[in-house]
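Aim 2, interim progress: modelling of the calcium ion-bound target.
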Amino acid sequence: MVNPGDIERRREPLAPPIPLVIDCDPGIDDAVAIALAVASPEVDLLGLTTVAGNVSLARSTSNARALLDSFGRPDVPVVPGAERGLVRAKAPHADVHGPTGLGNGRLPMGEPVAAGEHAVQFLARVLAAAPPRSVTIAAIAPLTNLALLVALHPELLDRIRHLVVMGTSSGPGNMTPHAEYNTWADPEAAQRVLGEPAIPVCVVELQTTRHTTLTPRQLDELRGGSARGALLASMIDGYVDQGRGARPLHDVLVTAAIVAPDVIQTRPASVEIDTSTSEQRGRSTFGPERDAPAPLRVSTDLDLERFRRLTLDRVAAA
Ligand code: BDR
Ligand code: CA
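Predicted structure of the complex, ligand included:
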């Protein structure tokens, strides 16, 4: 028998998709994070902005274009941003992602991205046209573009609903003993963005994301699920293990947390980034929540099985 309450619930309109821009440096895990966004009806992907990080700006831009084209989304714009750090040049992460940035993945080159608008101008244009607290930004690369946005357009920061960042570490680093790669690659930018009180920020940090592996059986499931799954699995195969045998998909947890917020747990916090030139450069030190308004949260845990299922069900099936 049908309960009238059920009928009322069925009539409830679905929540409109969340407008999303991904700032990225593809990057193997970036590629899977973008694939999850493309496969998720909860988000409306407005564009990818690119930055130098895992690979050069030119390579991260061409990788981003080629990925979207191969995922059947040539309509989504790719807009290049900063080609070096705010204060110091970045070093690439080729020892992790391979020389092309996409491991063993082989993609036809996408359409060349025309020079013109800068990533920060694109973000400003998107935000200027949006209502307050409506646009979510996923930042899965060094925070240079976001720091420039904060500096140039403080009047638009109230349009950001959430900024979800892969960066920092509450423990050891993966670039140096002290620093996570994205934070290490532009610590001055990270300090500026993560200390900005006008943006609700969620930081998905390394001690949470280092668990985001797939089992060998799940990798086979990805490989056999679809052409897209096979492509992504070949990228993951080319992940350089750094001797630890693990292939975490750090950036995918950012997309997953936007699509399904309960996949991570968070706590309020503040964070300071070491911007010295000492061996501590890029180290993140978390403290208690600052006085309001300090809307920063940091991840404390993840639901690993939910993360794995969400990723595989969406990405392998597409
Ligand atoms: C971060 O660094 C890059 O290698 C990954 O793409 C991820 O964004 C992990 O520390
Ligand atoms: Ca990345």
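The beta strands are 18-24, 43-50, 78-80, 135-139, 160-166, 201-204, 264-268, 270-273, 284-287, 296-302. DSSP finds 13 helices and ten strands in the chain.
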